[in-house]
Amino acid sequence: MKYSLIVVLSFFMLSACSAPEQVVHKASLATQNEVSIGQSAVAMPDAFSADVAQQIMLDGGNAIDAAIAAQFVLAVTLPEAGNIGGGGFMLVYKDKESDFIDYREQAPLAAHRDMYLDAHGDVVPYQSVIGILSSGVPGTVAGMWLAHEKYGTLPWKDLVDPAVKLAIEGFVMPQKLAGYISRYSKRLKDKGFDVNFDDYFASAKAGEVFKQPELGATLALIRDEGRDGFYKGKTAKIIADFMANNKGLITEQDLAEYEAKARQPISAKWREYDVLTSPPPSSGGIAIIQWLTMYDQLTKGKDKLEHNSAPYVHLLAEAGKRVFADRAEYLGDPDFVQVPVSELIDPDYIAKRGANISMDSISVTELIKPGLKESEETTHFSIIDKWGNAVSNTTTINLGFGSGVVVEGAGFLLNDEMDDFSAKPGVANVFGAVGGEANEIHPKKRMLSSMTPTIVLKDGKVSVVTGSPGGTTIISSVYTSILNALEFNMSAQETVDAPRFHHQLLPKDVIRYQDGLTPQTVKTLEDMGYTMNNNRFGDLHTIINRDGQLDAGSESHGRGKSIVF
Ligand code: GLY
């Protein structure tokens, strides 16, 4: 590749992940005599969204009402990933039926396959990750509108209004967010990127009230006019004019034609559980089913591997190699390419894929081919209401603070989701993921995602609700959280805080891991030939139902808050 992936990664991922301050985390467990009926829980990426989601449910709203309100609050209080300028996936389990609302961004009508290549056919550095050309058509408002039409019980206005107030009246800027904004701003300057991020965020000071009047006005239009308050009329015109004046691609027609889509979630048996998870255009659902199934197949009849021991990490890294080889070849927007979902999650196929894994040595990366033919940012929340309904919602503007571009006059940050397409076959995106034809750019196509909101059921009741940000590492955060909760019986807090690791085929034999793996485990893996890259990732928000007792956890390193009530 023409430009250095390492440079791009370090720019965005350091900005997205470093969180030096001590976190205030609150997780509460309900008392032992409470039962699941009547008990609710939220596990959210910040305290503002947690408090609003709780209040909506105390006011009689269900989990979907709470999710919609939280999504809009996060657009105000978690600007690095919460959004109205991006997209996401909402997995719903309501009255024993499941649904998946795909509000992923899509390529503008004027986009084309080679739009990020120069005259020599090389990828133009940074163009798909920073600045106005990196944005797909936002899907969030349409997604929330569809969720409300299908499942909402409280008035739409009541769900958007808390966000309007937080934007107009302001909120006290958390120290961590202020630090993140200033590091991001410095890096933009250091790299010479010409975006207007500072015009909107440079005034943020820790401990002081931070107001966003333009965003407040945009949210007020959404509150008062619903979906059309964003995709038509004043806001649509502001977005289209801003694009036209700055050589961007998104037009009023792009906005008017955007539709959120309800899709069938992937549902697969794993042990005594039914795993409900994300279908394409997410790659994550197929990946976690492959990963969990391969783990069981390769450990069956053997002594249980010690959590986070070298053999455990190695086995799951080997599985990951195969998972990501399939991801690169087969996965894309199902409205444009045929994704062989049932073949990819067929246990017999998965058994064949894992058959040549050795516990003693690393398989040769170059020989791992797709199987059928032979800021990093984002944010997630999990909710269960007192009726036992659940929402697992992951939303994103891609890297921390997205494209770095704020729509002038509308006050919201635009995504840089176009980088999740494959700009050129075999050339890695910012997450190091490669892709081919299935994920090439096409007008109105949705870029492949790793977002994996997931709900695990046991006997029709919600057992685990989980999800995380983190680009391709999302998939590892999600499947390891399921293993932590259900294989290792950890509490929700232990589940989200246990050190994790991630391997994705490329870069070759590199395992990314978090502090907490023992030095002995790291050394054993290095001796096997792995390069161990200590670089934390993700921000899990998980709720576990243990025999009617809810337990919720939000990662201690972040700004999250979880409540059982
Ligand atoms: N933008 C990260 C993802 O959707 O995978």
UniProtKB/TrEMBL annotation:
Cleaved by autocatalysis into a large and a small subunit. Keywords: Acyltransferase, Glutathione biosynthesis, Hydrolase, Signal, Transferase, Zymogen. It holds the Pfam family G_glu_transpept. Pathway: Sulfur metabolism; glutathione metabolism. It catalyses: an N-terminal (5-L-glutamyl)-[peptide] + an alpha-amino acid = 5-L-glutamyl amino acid + an N-terminal L-alpha-aminoacyl-[peptide]; an S-substituted glutathione + H2O = an S-substituted L-cysteinylglycine + L-glutamate; glutathione + H2O = L-cysteinylglycine + L-glutamate. Its EC number is 2.3.2.2, 3.4.19.13. InterPro entries: GGT_bact, GGT_CS, GGT_lsub, GGT_peptidase, GGT_ssub_C, Ntn_hydrolases_N. Coiled coil: none annotated. Residues 1-18 form the signal peptide. GO terms for molecular function: leukotriene C4 gamma-glutamyl transferase activity. This enzyme consists of two polypeptide chains, which are synthesized in precursor form from a single polypeptide. Belongs to the gamma-glutamyltransferase family. This is Glutathione hydrolase proenzyme. The gene is ggt.
